[in-house]
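Session log. Operator J.P. requested a structure for one protein chain; no other inputs attached. Running the standard single-chain path with token output.
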Amino acid sequence: MKTVILAGGFGTRLAEETSRLPKPMVEIGGKPLLWHIMKIYASHGFREFLVACGYKGDYIKEYFHDFAIRSNDYFVDLRSGSFEIVNRNAEDWRVGMIDTGLNTMTGGRVLRLRDWLKNSAFMLTYGDGLGNVDVNALLEFHKSRGKLVTVTAVHPPARFGALEIEGELVREFTEKSQALEGWINGGFFVCEPGVLDYISDDRTVFEREPLENLAADGQLAAYRHEGFWQPMDTLREKQLLEALWEKGDAPWATWLGQSGTASTA
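Structure written below.
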């Protein structure tokens, strides 16, 4: 099963980084965010990817073109120009990087991948969010519900402290629990090929008509993820993810045995 990663947006809320790079190529712990997302899927056995490129997509293409050189030791014969890779440790992934247009909306990007999806079910996620989602459990949940699309529902990260006020005094101050924030779309979709019939053209925003109509038709299931989930929309969120990685407490990095909370359906 292929995993589609939407990686073509402008990332305007992270302009400090995205003025020079596409957001999925902003680094956490010396590796692009895109690599972290792919590691999540690969750690569950999903190693075929379609990256929907757009804004500054050439950076993504160059990164994977040179991936073997970046990731392995090698000898080069300066006379012939040939090189031999040694101490091979590159990922065993197959990655397609497809230009889906500079201004194409999220739904349109998925539609442009139709020929590569070959009328098969596929995973779909955004190129700017991390979570310790059990992708295999998500897939089993999807199969058991028999719907066209399953979305992973997550609690939004808590942003503000909660105050209990009596008169003019704060009687209690607590960090607001993420679990109290309700449910939102966290990406990590599983889609049947029929979802493409809900997408009209390049202007279609996946989160608008397609998901709204799927919900109205009773074809959108929700997999509740109670564990870690964090988008990277701002510099503050980038710094948060970087700090977690540096402390060895990155819940999404399950391939390293780092900490995190299990998912539930």
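Operator note: Residues 2-256 form a domain with the Spore Coat Polysaccharide Biosynthesis Protein SpsA; Chain A fold (CATH 3.90.550.10).
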